[in-house]
Each structure stands twice: as structure tokens, then as C-alpha cells.
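Long-time lurker, finally posting.

We've been working with TonB-dependent receptor (Chryseobacterium formosense) and I want a structural starting point before designing mutants. I don't trust myself to interpret raw outputs, so I'm hoping someone here can both generate the C-alpha cells and explain anything notable. Sequence follows.
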Amino acid sequence: MKTQIFIAALFLSGFTFAQEKKNDSVKTQKIEEVVMTKQVFKKQSDRFVYDVAASPVTKGNTTFDLLRQTPLLSTTDDKTLKIAGKNNALIYINGRKSNMDAESLAQFLKNTPAENIQKIEVITVPGSEFQVEASDGIINIVLKKKMSDGLNGNMRMSNSQNKYNGSSASFSANYRKDKLGISANLYGGDNIQAQHYVLRNGNDLSSNESTGNIDDPNQYIGGYLNFDYQLTEKSNLALSWNSNANKSYNSTVNLFNTIKSFDTESQSYITNYTNSRNREDARSYNNSVNLNYELKTDSLGSKLNVNAAYLNYRRFQFTDNKTYFADAMGNDKNLSQTIYQNLPQIINNFSGTVDYIQKFKNDFTVSIGGNFNKTKTDNDTQNDTFIEGEPTESAPNHFIYDENIYGMYLTLEKKFSDKFSGKIGTRYEITNSLGTSDNAAEEYRRIERNYNNVLPYLSLNYAINDKNNISYAFSSRMRRPSFWELNPVRNILTEDNYTQNNPFVKASSTYNQELTYMFKNSYFLIVNHSLFKDVITQVPLQRDILKDRRDANGNPVIDPITNLPIKDSYKQLRYIRTNFGDKQEMSVMLGMQKTFFNQYLTTNFNIGVQRNVNNGSLSVDPTSGDVFPLYENKISSTSILIQTNNTIRLDKKKTWFLGVNYFFVDKQQIELGMLKNLMSLDLSIKKNWNDWTFALNLNDVLRTNIVEIEDYQANGNYNYVRNDQFRRGGTFSITYNFGNQKVKKVRNIEGASDDIKSRTR
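Top reply, 14 upvotes:
Generated this for you. Predicted structure of TonB-dependent receptor:
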């Protein structure tokens, strides 16, 4: 109830500021239409540029809505954005990485009017000056320049209905007065993330099947506060603070387990039933502060940028995992096993970056810089196991992980003529890490890794004529494991099915190549190849273990001859996080971005083919040394990808809009097995009325966005996963913009700890 009261108060409080609206923002409503005279979508050097200021779909949209309609970008969960052919997309603002965690960033994008944006740049292969990992791409949002002093803001309320109901609200404001700029955001909400699982694994002699639901309630609040002051005509000083808190109490797992084992004496299957009743209380806090100094050194755009930051992340997680004997109808019998887990994690990070860009009159640019990150993670975990109420095992593990990263880069960019330009650079990174534990197995006591990486980059762009453009890019990157992946704990789903983190995971390497052809700034062809070395992923290892046979009440079955419990073979399944061989991804994507029927229809359409080549095998659990039957994935697959986003203007005054979005991903081989095809049809209707926007979004209308993975091994083992996250649902939102809509921030600033944030949970 408190959350709903907070949401209502947050939304209604903004009407106080609404009275301060300036006359100039009212006058802008009288502007009927601007006739486009410049290109909306084009290729420039190392990036695609979407000039949204010249696009007919900008008015009344949020930044997130606009990004969803940007060529090459997509979202399947209405939270995260992906670039076609890329694993992930990082958000930059005015060329600097956003200083927000993932939740704050999503709220920021959904509550920033699209009218504030000049253009969106999609960088599929980032240069050496960008701190990115693996095959990540970059979405750079370029805001319009500052125009006037004043106050403006944005309020938004939304209510979503999937399996459960959820609500959220946010309030953001920008204030500009002479040399001082202040921006702030506050958001909050609650939801229940629901999932339904079907898990099957085993072989002809023994098998497990688990079916049931997971419900994860969340209440969250967060925001940011930024101060930016212009010291002189050439220098600025800024201080930024970001905060986010999430509470997830009474998260539950309820799975019904059917365990079969083949009895060689009777030549029949013995079936046992259990219920997994897991409960979890978790909360997390994320706070960061960043101090930035920028100095412009000449009129050509040369500048020095310095950042210093501190990040504190704290997560507390308490779980009790209970296994009950059950009957065939799923009714609980006796309590079999209980595992209590206390899994806290504390991360402290100090970071610094220095970047200098020198521009010359002959279209030559030199960029040089460096960064330093010092991170300490503290994981003081506790596992206590009780069998039939009696304590049997206590497994504390205080794991501390220290990591120091030193990086430097040099990039040279030259425009040789109006047709030909190029960029070459390299990044050199040194990583020193040490993981220690004072109460674990000997192999966990000290895990030290030191490695150096040279990461080259090259891009070339040639404009054949005003209608044809071709470009090539090559990049080498690395991916470090997330801090929670290194924490050697088990995340238990059922008694014999759990995920095992791994402190021995090492960084993986990625090599990306991309060839792009563009015609008339509307049609494009992208050919991409990525090679991943030492891929970081989960590997499903399963083996037979012996356990007591149980009767209908869960009591051991005694052999009348030996007077000992009869043992049966059961399947144990561990998802081990580890480095799993190499992988290649190759894709060919054909796309179009265009408007039709006098701008009544705006569409972007992509169709392509992707080939995955996997080459990995594992038979030993690297965290324990336990030997399993070989798990092997040396299978290739070829799949079709289709995506289209369409906005239809329903009236001449540009107040009604219909959205029709669709994606299809053909079945493809991934590390865990064959991922079956996915698709989703999303519909939306939007009404702009003065400063108000009313929107209704319907997601996964056909209920086809459900994950299914199946795998069959040569040794007879199989594994099947079906995960339904109830993506079909609707969201209704009301957005109100107030104040002087010409107010813009002084600058947007990168935080020195941003690359570390992506590795927290």
C-alpha cells in the first residue's frame, strides 16, 4: 500500500511546477509541421546516424519509444535495447557513457521527451576510445544544444498487467540559470516478476522432471541528482549522484518433481515425487558519485575530460530451500531436506578516467586517454544443510575478490577527402586480480590472475557517390566475468538442480569484423563475423548419484535380506559457470528505413541470416573436481531473423499514432542446446493532447515469446528447459510535460565507474 501512495504523491506533486510554464512553450504548440529537407538516416564513418529532429515520429514520444523505432535497434522485454547482431547495447549521451545503473537508465529513457533529441547514433563496432566488452555496441544519444534558462520537467504514471499487476511513476526536472545547470529524477514502483518452468533431464535409466512457478515481487525506488557549473567560457565542473534500492521479499519457488529410476531386478521404473518449496528475501542498494572536470583547449573542439568516481553496491540475500516428499498428486508429505543460505555481496569501486581529444584544421583528430579501476568484492556466505530436521553440513565461505584494471588508448582519425575517411587505434589493458578465502577448500584459498591485452581497432569508410556508401570495421575486445559469477556459491532451484558460480572463470576474447553497404541512405546490407575465445557461459553437467529409495510417505525402503536401505540411481544436474571453448557468429542483414504516404507510415525492416558455430566440451566440474559424463556442443546452426517496426499516423494533426512491431528469431544452436524459435507481435496506440500523452501498449499479443531449449548428447543424456515469463500483457501510461521545453542540460557526463556497474548484478 505504501508504494501506491508514494506513486500517487510523486505524480501529483508535479502540478505545483506546472504553473511555471513559460509562454514560449505554449506558442510552440501552434507550429503545425516542418517539411523535411535533409536525410533522416545515413552512414557516417564508424556509425549509423538517425536524425530524429527531421523525423515525423518524434513529437510526443519518449526517448525509449524513439529508440525502439530506430533502425537496427530492438527490445524484447520493454526494458533493454539490443543492436542487430550484437549481444548488448550500451547507452551513451553526447558521446559519454551514461552515469546510471540499468534500472535508472531505463526510467530515464522512458521519461525524457524525444523532442530533446537531435540525433541517435548506432555504433555497431566501437572504436578504441570506448570502454566496452565483447561484441557490445553503442547507442549514442545526441541532445539538442542549450537554448534558454528556466525549469522544465516530466511526470509519468504507468500500470502494467501481465500475470500480475504492476505500477510505476517517475518525476524528472531540469533547471538552468546562467552558468548553473541542475537535473534530477525520482522514480519508484512495484511488480511481481512471474515465471513458469518445465525442466526435464536424464537418460533411459534415470530422469528428473520439475514443473511449477517462480514469483519474485519487487519494490524499488531510485533517482539521480546532477550539478553542472560553468567555471569559465572553456571549463566546467560537475558533480553527479545516482542511487537505486530494490526490495524483493517473499520470492517463492514451487516446483513439483518427478524422479524415475530403472530397477534392473524388476525391469521396471521406480517413481518418487518431491516438492521444492523455496523462499527468498533479498534487497540491494546501488550508490555512486562522480566528479567531472572538462576543459576546452581550442575553438576546433579539442578538450580535456577528467573523472573521479566512487561506487558502492550492496546485496543481501537470505534463502531457505525445502524439499518435501510428495504423492503423485503433488501433496506434501514429510520434510526431506532444508538448506539455509545467507549470500551477501558488497562491492566497493574507486575509478578514474582521463581523456584528451586534439583536433587539427586538416580534418585530423588524435584521441588519447587512460582509466584506472580498483574494485573489492566481499562475499561472506553461509550454507547450512538439514536432512529430516537434523543438521548434516555447515559450509561457510568468506570469499574476497580484489581487482585492479589499468587501461590506455590511442586513436587516430582522418578525413582524407569528402569520400574517404578512416580511423585506427588500439587499447592496452592490464588486469591484476586476486581471490582469497579463509575457510574454503584448498583450491579456493588463493586464485590469482594477471593478464595484459592489446586490443586493436580499424575502420574505413568510402562514399562512392551520393547514393552509395561502403565501410569496413575490425575490433578486438575482451569480456570479464561479472562479480557475482565469480562468487563460488550455489543458487538452488531443486534438491538436485542448481547453478554453481565459479571463481576460476577467466576473461574471454572477442574479434569482430563488419562490412556495411548503404544505398540512398534508406537501404543497407551488413555482413558481420564474430569469433569468441573462451566463451563465458553456463554448462549443464549431469550425472547419476545413489540415494535411498522412498515409500509413499518418504520413508526409506529396507532390503529384507541385508536390512539396509535400497539405493536407486538419481540424476543430478549442475549448471556450471565456466569458460566453454570457442564460438563463431556470422550474419548477413538486409534492412530498410523509410517513410511512405506523405509521412503517414514510418517503417524500418530487417531480415537476415545468422549462423552459429559452437565448439566446446566439459566433463569436470572446475569448482569441485567432480567427474561427469562428457557434455559436448560442437553443433552449427543457420537461422532466419526478421524484425519490423512501424508507426502509422492516424490523423493530419499528428495526435493519434498506431504502432505495429514484430520480430521472429528462427531456432538456433546456443551453448545450452537448441533454442527453439521466438517471435512477438506488439501493438500500441498513442494520443497526444497538448502536453499530455496517453499510451496503451500490448506486448506479445500472440503469446509466442516463450523460451524453449532442448539438447541431446551422444551418451544418451538429454536436457529440456521451457521458461515462460508471461510477456503477454498490456501497459497504460500517462505522461505530462511541464515548464519551458527549451531548457537543456549544460552537458551530459560520463562516470568513471560506469564500466564497472555493468558487472554488478
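Before you design anything, note these points.
The longest strand covers residues 235-263.
DSSP finds seven helices and 40 strands in the chain.
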